[in-house]
Design goal:
The chain has one domain. 74% of the residues lie in helices and 4% in strands. It has helices spanning 22-25, 28-56, 68-97, 99-127, 132-148, 150-159; strands spanning 2-4, 10-12. A two-stranded antiparallel ribbon has the order 1-2. Helix 2 (28-56) runs parallel beside helix 4, helix 2 packs antiparallel against helix 6 (150-159) and helix 4 packs antiparallel against helix 5 (132-148).
Length: 160
């Protein structure tokens, strides 16, 4: 079986039996890339699902008891700032740290994100509602989440 090109050359195609199998494409670097991206997506989706539940839940059940309007404002401002920071600073961070180091730094933000949930909750327990320390901790959580989102851009640089 041949294919004609613009220059009228015949390029022989390999028969289907001679093509590589899917299993032969799963090399160690490919597997590491798939696992890294999979964990990034899993942890990010978990955080994004947990945040509104945590903010809306009563204090007695481990949350902060914020009203839905406040939660909407928090998540909306987070989304706008996240987009602006990614556009303004991702390229600088990528040049400064490099793709692999930026990916690793961004993934370490999950320690900060998940570590701040109990800090915020215990702060809320101490006063019965959100206090200045709780708002500061929530702000740091959202900043860490914005930095974590740089992992998606860095992973594209590493893996592709």
């Amino acid at each position: 079986m041949d294919v004609e090109t613009e220059n009228s050359r015949h390029i022989p195609l390999k028969p289907p039996s001679a093509q590589r199998s899917i299993r032969s494409l799963i090399t160690k670097p490919v597997l590491i890339a798939i696992l890294n991206y999979g964990w990034l997506a899993f942890l990010d989706i978990s955080y994004l699902a947990l945040l509104p539940v945590f903010l809306a839940s009563p204090v007695e059940m481990g949350g902060t008891n914020l009203p839905p309007q406040t939660i909407g404002i928090i998540i909306g401002v987070y989304g706008i700032l996240n987009g602006l920071v990614q556009v303004a600073f991702f390229n600088l961070a990528h040049k400064w740290l490099g793709a692999k180091r930026l990916f690793m730094v961004a993934l370490t933000m999950f320690w900060v994100i998940y570590g701040l949930y109990p800090v915020i909750h215990f702060s809320v327990i101490s006063t019965g509602s959100m206090n200045v320390f709780s708002w500061i901790a929530l702000t740091f959580l959202l900043i860490a989440a914005i930095l974590m989102d740089m992992a998606y851009g860095a992973s594209c640089s590493i893996f592709y």
